[in-house]
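Worked example (supplementary).
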Amino acid sequence: MPEGDTIYRLADRLRRALAGQAIIEVKSAVAEIREGHLLGSTVVDVGSRGKNLLIGFSNGLTLHSHLMMHGAWHLYARGERWRMPSFRLRLALSTETTEAVCFGAPIVRLLRTDRLDADPRLRALGPDLLSDGFDAEEALRRLSADPDRPIADALLDQHAVAGIGNVLKSEILFLAKLDPRTKVGAIEAAALRGVLDVAREVITRTVARGRGGRFVLPGRVTRVTSQSMLGRGGELWVYERRGERCLACATPIEMIRQADARSTYFCPACQRG
Ligand SMILES: [Zn+2]
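After joint prediction of all chains, the assembly is encoded as:
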């Protein structure tokens, strides 16, 4: 599933392609969305909230899409052949030069822009790690609401804090030196705040550089390993590295299944607390 940083960068690409442009053709496989809803309107803005993509139009409507596991947005030059079969089409929007096509997304719907904050699905989202006005207090309150839950599961709960997916979850907990099975209620407030600080830094850096490239937080890694140990281009600290040696302490990385059978990778030596 795409993580918050992926959707944030997707929003950025769509914004650069579509903002200020008028929609001159609409192809819809969504029963509730007809061509007339969007034809002739101009794209005002494209943004994200957690893993939700929002495209705002000049007619006061906003297109909300969520890609879940298998959805995608593609950008094409107008008239270019799609790289995905047309039966997977959900919605295609054309400007004079560009066609933005949404394939396979389970959620594609139109909302009134002035009612976005009242929408149950969007309102239920926790504070967005990539939002300028990130509300850490609210995120801490929501994370702590279920004290018996392991921290790894809590971080994936988009109703607590929006934007973290399965890859970043493992990386964040490694950098925070926290055992993924630790119950939220057993983590001191300052340490939990520290986890959020790491999460914001990691997701912000991921947006800046794109996926790939290991996250190095100043002061958090005490031992620097040789380049030859980095492996796989030095991408990630623990994710999908089960059985390989920890890049900080050389202990074999372990993998466990947590809620919904989601995999969690961690170093049993570095992540004790
Ligand atoms: Zn380690």
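Two points are worth noting when inspecting this output. The pocket of zinc ion is lined by residues 246, 248-249, 251, 267, 269-270 (CB under 6 Å). The mean pLDDT is 89.
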